[in-house]
Amino acid sequence: MAALLGATALAVTTGGALAAPAGAASAQSAAVDFATHCVPPPIAGIPPIDGTTTAQITVDKATPKVGDTVTVTYTVVKPAANNPTQLPLPADIMTPTGKVTLGGAQTGDITVAGPKKNDPVPGGGAFPSFSMTGTFTVTSPGAITLSPGDYNIHTSYILELDTPCTVTNPPAPVSETVTATDGSETNTRAISLGSASGSPGAGVTVTGSNFTPGATVTLAGRSGAAQTEDKATATADGQGAFSGTLTVNDKTTTGVVAYEGGSWSDSKGAGPAAYVVIDDTPVPEGSQKIKAKVTAGTLSMSQAGDNVDLGSVEFGSGGTADGDLQTVTVEDHRGGTAGWSLTGKVTDFTGPGASIPASQLSWTPACVTKDGSSSTCQAGSAGSVGSEGATLASAPNGTLTGGEFTVDAKLSLKVPAPTPPGSYAGVLTLTLT
C-alpha cells in the first residue's frame, strides 16, 4: 500500500534556493481467476454456488532472507458468491478469513484475516472486494510461490452466518512469487493454524516446524502486541515439528504465537499467525448487545511546503549550500502489521549552461514518533541522496503498527568551485510505501 503526495523543487543559487516532494509506488502481482465452491448458510435455503473468484496476493518483501517475516495481503477482488438472501446487508458487518498456499522452496498454508469492514450489500447483490493479511517466516532459500486459498465470509447481522468458499481444484494459480536468499538470521521456526477464526472457547490446531527437537513449546494468543491469558503447550518431536491445540477464549485475539522458554522471544518464537474470534454468543432474553467499531484508515503523508531555499556559495571558492527539508508528517492509521518506508531521490541541479550532480546533495535525517503510536520510527542514515535514492525514515513491521510521525532532515549541497554563477534547481521526490 502506498501514498503519493507530490514533488518539491530544490534550488540553489551560487547564491540560491531549494525545495522537496513525494511519490507513490505499489507492489505489482498478478490477479488470478479460479473456480470456487461456496456453501450459503442453511437458513438461506439455496444450493451451493459454483463460480469464479478473482484474487490477488501482494507481499511487503519480494526478496526476503531466510529468517525474515513476510507480510502477505490476500485481496478477493471479485468473490464467487453473492449475498445469499434478499435481505440487504448494512455496512461493516462482514469479517473475512482465509488461507494462502505456499509452494516451491517452502510449502504450507498461511492464515489471513481481514477487518470487519464492507460497503452495504443489497439483497442478492455481489459481495464487495475485501482484503486479508497474515505473515509467514521464510525457512528455505529459493523461489516461494503464493496462491490464493479457501476463504470464508462471516456476517454479523441479526444472525451470525458463514459462507465458506473452497478452491475447486487446488492449488489455485500462482499470484505472487518471492525469491528468498540465505541470511544471517538463524531462527527459522514457523507455525501454521488449522483455521483463521473460531467462536469464543473454540480450539485451533497449531502446527510448527524447525523448533528444537524435544523442546516444550508454549502456544499463546496475542491481542495486538500483548499476550493474552490463553495458553497451551506442545512438545517438538525429533525433527523439531509439533502439533497442538490452543483454546482461544479472549475475544480480542488477533493472532497466535509459539515459542520455546518461559516467555516470548524473537530468537526462539514463531508467529503471530492471524486469528479472529467471532463472537456468536446469543443475547439473553431481555438484553441488548451494544457494539462499536474501529475502522481501518490509510497510510498517508503531508509536507509543510514544496520549496526549500539553500544558502549562497561564492563563485570560484566552492563550498556547501545548507538548509532544512520541509517537515514531512506520516500518518499510519491502517491498524495492521505492516510497517512503512519513506525514501527520496533527487535530480541533477541544472543552471545556466551547467549542472551540479545529484550525488552532491546529502542529508542528515531525523524522525520523531508521536506519543501513543504503536510503531516507533527510525531515521535513515546520513549521506548522499543521489538519483538512485536513499531512505529518509522508516517503521518496521510488527504485531500491531501505526501512529503519527514527524520527519525532518538537514540538507547540504556541495557546490564545486568552478560552477558558473546563477540559480540551480533540482527536484527531490519522496515516496512512501
Output the keywords.
single chain, 433 residues, mainly beta, Immunoglobulin-like, 3 domains, nine-stranded antiparallel beta sheet, six-stranded mixed beta sheet, globular
Overview of the structural elements:
The chain is mainly beta. It has 3 domains: 8-21 and 296-432, no CATH class; 29-185, Immunoglobulin-like (Sandwich), CATH 2.60.40; 189-274, Immunoglobulin-like, CATH 2.60.40.230. It is 0% helix and 50% strand. It has no helices and 32 strands. Strands 2, 3, 4, 5, 6, 7, 8, 9 and 10 form a 9-stranded antiparallel beta sheet that branches. A hairpin with a 3-residue loop joins β5 and β6 (108-113). The radius of gyration is 26 Å and the shape is globular. The model is unreliable at 1-27 (pLDDT under 50). Residues 1-19 form the signal peptide. This is Beta-xylosidase.
